Amino acid sequence: MAIFGVWDYVVIAIVLLISSFIGIYYRFTGGKQKTMQEYLLADKNMSITPVAFSLMASFMSAITILGVSSENYTYGFQFIIINISYGIFTPVAAYLYLPVFFKLQATSAYEYLELRFGKTSRLAASLSYTLQMTLYMGIVVYAPALALEALTGMTKEIAILSIGLVCTFYSTIGGMKAVLITDVFQSMLMFVSVFSVIGYELKERGSFSEIWRIAESGNRTELLNFDPDPTVRHSWFSLIIGGGVTFLSLYAVNQTQVQRYLTIKDLKRAQMALWWNWPILTTLSISTSFSGLCIYSRYFNCDPVTAGRINSIDQLMPYYVVDTMGAIPGLSGLFVAGIFCASLSTVSAALNSLAAVTVEDYYKPLHRLIFKRNMSLNAVSLRTKIIALIYGFVCLGVAFLAQLLGGVLQAALTIFGVVGGPLLGLFSLGMFTLTANEQGSVTGLICGVSVSLWIAFAPKPGPQALPTSIEGCDSSNSSHFIENIAKSLNINDDDYFWLYRVSYLYNGVIGLLITFIVGYLVSFGTRKLFGKRVDDEHYDPSLFIPPLEKRLRRKMKISMQLTDFNSVKIRGSTNISASYTAG
Questions:
Q1: 490: pLDDT confidence band, cut at 50, 70 and 90?
Q2: Residue ranges of the alpha helices (H) in 262-330?
Q3: Which of 36, 278, 556, 568 has its CA 20 to 30 A from that of 583?
Q4: Is the four-CA dihedral 20, 22, 28, 31 of positive or negative sign?
């Protein structure tokens, strides 16, 4: 197999340098990142297009690019249905959740929880987010480095340092503007990487129909699985419901995305950016899915994993690129640059958002508690940059630790999923109900995260891959193939508790429901216990979704009118009484 050449390294170096220069440019232009508003919110003057691309790039990581293609290669094309959920739940995020954050205009999304419930809820949620994103950053850097090491000759240490240091550099000095503009550039390279796979295989096979025919013969084109059984890994129900909850946990209440919305000056334009994100996200998702079928059309009779040519299915796409296009100078480098960019965009988004949460939720309150005063704007800006830099080095540390603790990879990715559902449940509890209080919200979050983690980490059967063949490979690999068959035949799903067999897509749904239901019931119970009625409390209507906000404002208006009317009656009665007495 071909190994990287000089031009491949040149292409990667150019991409990393361009990303760095964008950071340098925004460090020395405009306000030079001297204020918190410019550094964390890009002065609230960003246009729709870069924000729309950044919303997509923030969570379409290298893991997604490598994983979605191998998913469709291994389990079939059914996963593509998840894109329908993005369209269904985009208006939910745009018109129910986003208006609340836009009215609040807080740098940290978790400030909402303090206003709605109290400081304990805010701290619990922001700590959950910090742990989630810190672990995820390290994995986003480590996973592609691991795959690329085995295929390109580039050591994972070099890959980790290249991604981590460049990303930390331009995120720290250039602020949110550098992150957003770099995301646009990096998004383009992500598309180029995926389209290079599709384009090459189309040239080899001659047409889409031929690629589809080969995939169909391998039972990889099923799209109409409507089985409602929650233990079915992928069906329309799990992909739309589970995928929708995952989408909302990322695009409705996640600090990384909320911070991007607030870089736009008005709500309508922010909603438009979210709507534009949908076709961009869907185009890349569908393209990456189809690239999995393209790769299958090449290896349908000689599976590289079964044949022992690669160790992991996640190495499939890089293997394909080096195997087919390795002889073309610079093309393999362009693909790897796209994978690097997928990691860069995700990590830079996380660094900026973690800095915002740390300053707003931890550092400022602690400073006020100790020194009894607020920090100056210049001091806040400097400390935010230092914190972003520190998180960059923490990211590198987690990435290097991941190679020593093999189980952490799957564990961290699972944590990323199971924390999102409970956090969505916590915000929904505050925005959709009047009954919820702090006792209920914190109890619900703890229960939701605990149960989700229990289900996610419980022993469970591995997913059943579709059949592969090595008939076109050397016969010397047949023993490896027979060994894999024997291992797969020993799997018996009935040996596992039913709940452990539930599709991984429902982890977030379970966390959401438990957080919301337990939180509501505990809130209702504590109100009854202490005799506190909802009608006795004075809520800020802007803390609730628009329909509930309108209801509260009407109620407040009627209450004020009744108060004025009673006041007039009292004054009138007093005047009549005074006149009668005088008479």
A1: very low
A2: 267-299, 316-325
A3: 568
A4: negative
6-406 carries CATH number 3.40.50.10420: no
**Residue 32 identity (one-letter amino acid):** K
pLDDT of residue 412 exceeding 60: no
Whether pLDDT at 581 is above 60: no
306: left (phi over 0), alpha (psi -120 to 50) or beta: alpha
Query: Counting Cβ atoms within 10 Å, is residue 484 exposed (0-12), middle (13-18) or buried (19+)?
Result: middle
Angle value at C-alpha 397, between 394 and 401, nearest 5 degrees: 140
Which residues have CB under 8 Å from 354's CB, separation 6+? 130, 133, 134, 387, 388, 391
DSSP 45: -
Distances in whole angstroms, Cα of residue 487 to Cα of each of 45, 76, 403, 476, 483: 57, 21, 26, 19, 6
| Upper half-sphere CA count for residue 270 (Cβ side, 13 Å) | 27
CB 307 within 8 A of CB 477: yes
For the record, the structure tokens of 135 come out as 């672990």
Sign of CA dihedral 66, 72, 74, 78: positive
**Alpha-helical runs (H) found in 300-407:** 316-325, 331-357, 364-371, 377-402
Residue 492 reports pLDDT greater than 60: no
Are 459 and 500 spatial neighbours (Cβ–Cβ below 8 Å)? Answer: yes
pTM of the model: 0.87
Domain positions in the chain are 6-406, 545-582
User: Could you give the CA distance from residue 87 to residue 84 in angstroms, rounded to a whole number?
Assistant: 5
Per DSSP, the three-state class of 481 is helix
